[in-house]
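Structure Section — protein described below
Tokens — whole-number codes for backbone shape
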Amino acid sequence: MAVLITAWDLVDEHRRLKGPTAYLKDEFPLFGGRLTDCTTLDVRTFGVSIVGGDFKDPAFTVEFLEGTIDEMGYVVIDKPEGEIEQSNDVTLPVAWVIGPVFEDA
């Protein structure tokens, strides 16, 4: 099961640095705690930004309009070692949920 925290780019920087799982536990302690204690499901939390910025920022708007959509957006993942990893592959949560589709290919 994947839990997606959308508009991750709008979360304040201090909280983004702690990662999506910590954010979930801070904002929704009962839900976050339950996911941590769940042993019957494989659960992963992702922070997702589909465009990678705020259109209220004129500089970002210009950057977005001059770029291509495949250059925008990102996913943040909590690594088991306590580190946080960012990927530009916004399909990563879906790929993680469905797992390897073509094992013999």
